[in-house]
Amino acid sequence: MNPVGITITRRATVLAVGLGLVTLSACGSSADDAGSGGSGGSRTVTLVSHGSFAYSKDVLKTFEKESGYKVKVLKSGDAGQAVNQAILTKDNPQGDVFFGVDNTLLSRALDNGLFQPYAAKGLDKVGAEYQLDKDEHRVTPIDSGDICVNYDKAYFEKNKIEPPKTFDDLIKREYKDLLVTENASTSSPGLGFVLGTAAKYGDGGWEGYWEKLKANGVKVVDGWEQAYYQEFSGSTDGKKAGGDRPLVVSYASSPPAEVVYADPRPKTAPTGVAEGTCFRQIEFAGLLSNAKNAEGGKALIDFLISKRFQEDMPLNMFVYPVVEGASVPAEFTEYGPAAKDPETMAPEKIAENRDQWVKSWTSLVLK
Q1: Spatial CB neighbours of 243, under 8 Å, sequence gap ≥ 6
Q2: What is the percent of the chain with per-residue pLDDT over 70, rounded to a whole number?
Q3: Nearest 5 degrees, angle CA 133-CA 199-CA 17?
Q4: What b-and-e string marks burial along 94-128, b requiring 16 or more CB atoms within 10 Å of the CB?
Q5: What is the C-alpha R_g of the chain?
Q6: Fewest Cβ atoms closer than 10 Å to its Cβ: which of 33, 66, 194, 340?
Q7: Position 86 confidence tier, pLDDT thresholds 50, 70, 90
Q8: Cβ burial, residue 265 (10 Å; 0-12/13-18/19+)
């Protein structure tokens, strides 16, 4: 998610989902690290995540002061890469909590026994629609966001072309060689976009759609940061990098990120969202199965769904909170409201088809 970041967590560092815009540094001290390493010994708790996880330092310090734990953060690439790495190291994990597995990859993590059950304090305030593992509590919902095609307003105004609005629009001639997306096998936004097309066109139609999209010049890169910050002409960093693709698979919350982090702030967002291309993403955190500091990990997960952290997320990771009553900043409603009718897919259907769909997509689009 990014976020949702929406990580958009300038989501992935303006946004990531997740657009994550704040650079993260590991927190902790060598003295605090010198615990026994058991669940009650160490006063350091380690969070493993994708590269888009971000927060306000004062919010984290409040948790550290109140809980007595120091937090260390280890970040690793895009969400897909981070999940794969966590699975490979599950017997000797890098940390205690993993944040950033989303609904597109959830079954892979659960089927590989990545997490141990924990019913977080405050879970009763998390919307039921986000609790995709509510019977076993192996993961806790943290945020949501929409994976959508973003467009560079200036490009379309200059060329007197209407921006695309739907999946169908993207295969039209006027949008040839304009779209960049992420690799579905390594990137959660890329996978989410593929799942969005599968939800839209069904089992018998999504491959035909991608054949047309490939013929229309879609470009595929490894991850969100490369797509958004190097290839996309509408982002601030993309302009600096000479990006020449005015369409990119990103997040509905990317436009407000472009406004919030601009200096000076523009009156309107320089980018827009093709609302008929959106897929709803939910990100989760889980207590790793072989966590050395399980008690610290539980406390950290409780903190992630506290109202204080939930209200801190939107302008750091550009994702939406999942806790009832958590407020959303005005910039979201003005520049990047959530999609009104995003594509969705049942976790069971994703679990049943994801690997084969990715394999088929790879063969069809990358070869």
Answers
A1: 229, 230, 231, 232, 233, 235
A2: 89
A3: 55
A4: ebbbbbbbbbbbbbbbbeeebbbebebebbeebee
A5: 20
A6: 340
A7: very high
A8: exposed
Digit-coded pLDDT (tens) for 213-227:
999 999 999 999 999
What is each CA distance from 325 to 121, 292, 320, in whole angstroms?
Answer: 16, 33, 12
Question: 301, 326, 299: which is closest to 315 by C-alpha?
Answer: 326
- Comparing CA positions, the residue from 194, 166, 197, 196 lying closest to residue 182 is 194
Residue 236 tokens read as: 């601030």
Strands of the chain, DSSP E = 44-49, 70-75, 97-102, 115-116, 140-152, 179-182, 219-221, 247-251, 271-288, 320-321
What is the token pair recorded at 43? 């006063």
pLDDT-derived band of residue 367, with 50, 70 and 90 as boundaries? confident
Structure tokens at 24: 């993260």
Percent of the chain with pLDDT over 90: 78
H or E segment and range at residue 39: none
* Burial group, residue 318, by CB count within 10 angstroms (0-12, 13-18, 19+): buried
pLDDT, one tens digit per residue, over 9-53 is 333 333 333 333 222 333 333 333 433 334 345 899 999 998 889
Q: How far apart are CA 17 and CA 365, in angstroms?
A: 23
Distance CA 177, CA 180 (A): 8
pLDDT for res 30: 33
